[in-house]
Amino acid sequence: MKNHIIPAFRLTMVMLAIVSLYLLFVYGGSKVLPTQGDAEIITHNGQKFYANIGQNFTSEKYFHGRPSAVDYNAAGSAGSNKGPSNAEYLEMVQKRIDTLKMQNPEMTNTPVPVELVTASGSGLDPAISPEGALYQVKRIAKVRSLSKEKIEELIKGNTNPPLLGLFGPSNVNVLKLNIALDGLE
């Protein structure tokens, strides 16, 4: 028994040290980020919003973000766990495509950006691609009586480049874009 307890104890201590170093590395790394590892809270019209958690925008006058598999509930972050060959999932995505084309009738012949009809792995993604935002420009311009050029310029001004110019695609935070859109009026 002694031959098993001592190696198990040593292995436990080694793993504890490795995991502790990893946690310190992640924590230290988060402190060099712009938000220092904390949530970015935005107050708009007396309400607080988390800019790093997707919001549900359904009004025609706002940009719509990614669908959420968890109804934008940050306490239950999760994907749908349905693969691209699942009939129920394909039917749900097709309904989203049909709804999106109905909301944006001027774009019926334009391919739908994938993030506007599929949920992210967390179900809480706050950003869409610039193409996803541009897909919605005509609808918003019409509803808000603004020029397409003005809205396109707003999208360009709110587009975040890839991290360090290398990692990930360009994206647009939907909450920040919609707050900036309200500022145009």
Automatic annotation (TrEMBL):
Top-rank lineage group of the source organism: Bacteria
Cited Pfam families: KdpC
Record GO terms (molecular function): ATP binding; hydrolase activity; P-type potassium transmembrane transporter activity
InterPro entries attached to this UniProt entry: KdpC
DNA-binding as UniProt keyword: no
Transmembrane portions of the chain: 7-27
Cellular compartment(s): Cell membrane
GO cellular component, one term: plasma membrane
Membrane topology field: Single-pass membrane protein
Keyword annotations: ATP-binding, Cell membrane, Hydrolase, Ion transport, Membrane, Nucleotide-binding, Potassium, Potassium transport, Transmembrane, Transmembrane helix, Transport
Complex formation: The system is composed of three essential subunits: KdpA, KdpB and KdpC.
Role description: Part of the high-affinity ATP-driven potassium transport (or Kdp) system, which catalyzes the hydrolysis of ATP coupled with the electrogenic transport of potassium into the cytoplasm. This subunit acts as a catalytic chaperone that increases the ATP-binding affinity of the ATP-hydrolyzing subunit KdpB by the formation of a transient KdpB/KdpC/ATP ternary complex.
Family under the similarity heading: Belongs to the KdpC family.
Name under which the protein is recorded: Potassium-transporting ATPase KdpC subunit
Taxonomic source organism: Chryseobacterium piperi
Gene label: kdpC
